[in-house]
Input
Amino acid sequence: MKKIIATLLFINTIVALQAQKLESKIPNTADIVVVADAENLFDLIKVSDIDDSLLGEEILRSVNRRREDKVSSISKAGIDVKSNAYYFFEKTDSISYHTFLVELNDRKLYESMLKERDLKKIKKDEGYRYIQKSREVMIWNDEFILFVKGDKHRNYFKEHNERFEKHKLEGQSMYDVKKLFSKQWILQKGFSVVNNPLLNSIAVNSSFQKGKKKNAVATFWMRNYGELMSDLIGSFGKELNSSMSYFMPQKGENIYGVEEVTANLSFNKKNASLLLDMTVSDDVKKSFKKIYNQKMNSTLINSFNHDEALAFWSVSIDTEQLLLEYPEMINKMYGGMFPKFNEEINIVGDILSLIVDEKAMASLVTGDALFVLNDFGEKEVSYKSYTYDDDYKRKEVTKTKQALVPDFTLMIGSEEKELLTKLFKLGQKHHLVKGAKNVFEIIVKDAKLPFNLYAVIKNDVLYVTTSKVRAVKLSIGKGLFKGGKHRKLIKKNSTVLFADVNALIANLPKESFRSTERKMIAFSNNNVEDVRFVVSKVKGNKISSELKLNTKGKKENTLKLLLEFINEMAK
Output
């Protein structure tokens, strides 16, 4: 019985993998893979929605440019729009390959759209048709089409000059030989992809498969961010100057400690989101958990009106742990980036550890910070201008104008009230600060700011605000708002950036908007709620961040809303 179940499971797996025709063509060595999920896309919209959109009109215009019998839909252009489309990137020592894969539903129809000069270049091999140019090749059959573009690594071709010299024929230049090899390798790469074995493909890569979210219309997957960046930095250094390779990171070395990266784009009824998941190495995880898994002090969260704030930005880290871990992190990152200077970088980290008192610094700046944009207002400000008399002599004059001024509050966690108070008292002595009843006005003469700044130290928080009334209230403990709607959001994430889009726009001067901007504002008022960006705390080896646009849910989904927005703006 067990053998029968195992056999059935195996057959089911093979059938499922075979169904992913294009995915099985992508080699498991790919560094980056991007997939557009047609099934999820067309669960949200119809093909006709794209045809009727500005995007669809542009595609059809391009498709019909050289056709006598015009097509009326993107689904009738030879490409199977209801199947997944793929892009993948693969870096080798000699060439970096960019590859695109899409399915065809009518090969002849697709070929009819090719330029006359390209049709003459068609060759046939292994049951495929292909057109090759100097840096790219297009290969197709009745089922799918593949496009490969190769970027040569100049330093590789320079370093292996002797190898190419052996293949040089009489009358040939080295440039011609290298170009010939490059074309050959790009063609070989294309055919290796179309003949890629299923079990050597990304289709059997569990990490890639798990990274794809259920409802995502597009997924981006990177095998190892740190290793790829090390390779790219090393290659870039060699491209600039071959002697720079002495300073560059070794191939395959993960200098950042960041491993797999996955991003998923989703459209739902009331929001659109881009979710980024980043896996870090075990040693980086230990450091990040110590630094980023701190919850923000509730005093800061309760110090602003969550219902009336136009926008806010919160950051919560553990300063003491940051300073303790920083020397080792510097050594890992920059020591890996510049391995020949590893000892010097190590010494810099050790010196920092000796100089900095981590506990004292953490007491002065705890790591909690919250910036709140409360409002905008207009203020008359003066500025310098020039007039000219009858003899064209220039004269400096002072004029005034109405300027848009932000009303904000910056909060920084600090347990050193006594030290900060001494600093403000010292500022008073040197006429940089005015003080009255625990409210300090900061004088910034040279900056010529259009607003005043007031500072208050209360309940282990340093407040800097543009409102004197708010500063006075905070100083006597009357500026607190308990039970704010964003409390949970701020508490459970290490970073939050939030903006009430329509409230922000409503506070900007209407006369400054052009007609296109007014249309955008009207559309936003009717459909948009807010936008937010959050970075999670470390969970296991993973850090997640999400950019999310929340809407009023008036359309079936936010993708339809996006298409409507594009069409509205194009009118």
